[in-house]
Amino acid sequence: MTKFSTLILTGALITGSSAYAQMRVEVIGVGSNQIPIAVAAFAEEGVAPAQISAIIRADLERSGMFKIIEAGSTLSETSSIDYSQWKSRGADALVVGSVQKLADGRFEVRYKLHDTIKTNQLSSLTQAAQPKYTRLSAHKIADDIYEKLTGSRGAFATRVAYVNENRGARDYRLEIADADGEAVQVAVRSNEPIISPSWSPDGTKVAYVSFEKRKPIIYVQDLVTGGRKIVVNEKGSNSAPSWSPDGTRLTVALSKDGHTQVYVVGVDGSGLRRVSNSNGIDTEPQFSADGQTIYFTSDRSGGPQIYKMPVGGGNAQRVTFNGSYNISPRVSSDGKTLAWVSQRDGGYSLYAMDLASGQELRLADAATEPSFSPNGKYIMYATKGGGRTSLAVVSVDGRVKQRLTTQAGNIREPNWGPFMK
Model confidence over 77-131: pLDDT tens digits? Predict the structure, then answer.
């Protein structure tokens, strides 16, 4: 196996120590034209297992789009609002709300968003959730605020999948967490490597590659039932699964015919069909947003570059031309932006390209394994530093950077889940 194919298949597995610790988020940089907003403490929120207002503040701050104005007070959604007071304190918007424990054990969360400039109410929301979902209620409120004030859908209530590994202890875990790194759950645990997690469009399943049978095999894990099934187990290497937008197919990279090529297969393992046909290595396939095109990495030109081709097969067109080593293509949900990793100046950097103009932007250094947020505004990636690998997030304009770290452990291969229904 060549150096290029080994890198793609194994993801350059790194030794580290394992931990179940929650991730800590550090925000570096801010977006342009930050919106000043005050989030008051919610009335009676102490009865809930999660502090709703604190989660909302953290979500908004992490986005880089908001400047948090210290509220210093508790206000419910029924409180009388002195708009001039909040405007004088520099807040263009104000968030208020309350929490009530219901007789059936659920928690009812109410909130209102006020515009202090226009002196009116912008939005309101009432949710009743089981105790374990109170954090989700807070994320949904933050999503509503983000959308009402920026015009784009928020992604705080989404989840991420990633691999947490301790290679020395032969402990590999496919974990699921909230987008802020909290509420971690182990979906799969193995003594052999797990790589390439990929969310289904409906957020109920994750495809991944496991080496538990001493060779790479593609599985689909059902996160609702806990069941799983083998989807592709052909001769040789089975790797790099990625879902079609309609959730009916996977595009995969298989070496069954001697060298790695791109295939499409039904999620039940039926209808396996070869799509690419080259004398090189074709791997890391990704469906386009409309499902009509597959982007992939190929060394057919002498070194790894990004190409695209029709989902039915046919002529492939080269997409990347700058740099001699470009891998890991990812396409935003609106189909407008391509993210990938390029080896330049002696290191691996994350780039984004406007597919209409071909203009490139260098977003982050020491980056691998990118994944778009479902709203297309942010990219999560793996980065190595301090002797271990962790996750980081950067906005598509490069202005906002976040780093998600744990006390220990190698956290890598992130895949950002879809909007929840």
Answer: 999 999 999 999 999 999 999 999 999 999 999 999 999 999 999 999 999 999 9
Phi first, then psi: what are they for 139, rounded to 5°?
-60, -40
Q: What pTM does this model have?
A: 0.91
Q: What angle do CA 301, 306, 309 make, to 5 degrees?
A: 95
pLDDT tens for 176-186 read 999 998 999 99
Tell me how far apart the alpha carbons of residues 355 and 173 are, in angstroms, rounded to a whole number. 35
Q: 273-274 and 249-254 as β-strands: parallel, antiparallel, unpaired?
A: unpaired
CB 369 within 8 A of CB 11: yes
Length of the chain: 421
On the question of pLDDT at 357 being above 50, the answer is yes
Rounded CA separation 197/240 (Å): 8
Q: Enumerate residues 6+ apart whose C-beta is below 8 A from 378.
A: 155, 372, 393, 394, 395, 396, 400
Rounded Cα distance between 312 and 262, Å, is 11
Lookup: tokens for 278: 């080259």
Q: How far apart are CA 155 and CA 420, in angstroms?
A: 9
Backbone angles phi, psi at 362, to 5 degrees: -85, 120
Closest CA to 197 of 156, 236, 233, 243: 243
CA distance 63 to 57: 10
Query: Which positions ≥6 away from 103 have C-beta within 8 Å?
Result: none
What is the arithmetic mean of pLDDT over 131-160?
97
Which H or E run contains 246? none
Residue 94 bridge partners (DSSP): 38, 114
277 with 322: CB under 8 angstroms?
no
What is the C-alpha to C-alpha distance for residues 89 and 109, in angstroms, rounded to an integer?
26
Dist CA 83 CA 380 (whole Å): 38
pLDDT of residue 10: 37
Question: Terminal CA-to-CA distance of the chain, rounded, Å?
Answer: 42
SS3 per-residue string spanning 261-299? EEEEEECCCCCCEECCCCCCCEEEEEECCCCCEEEEEEC
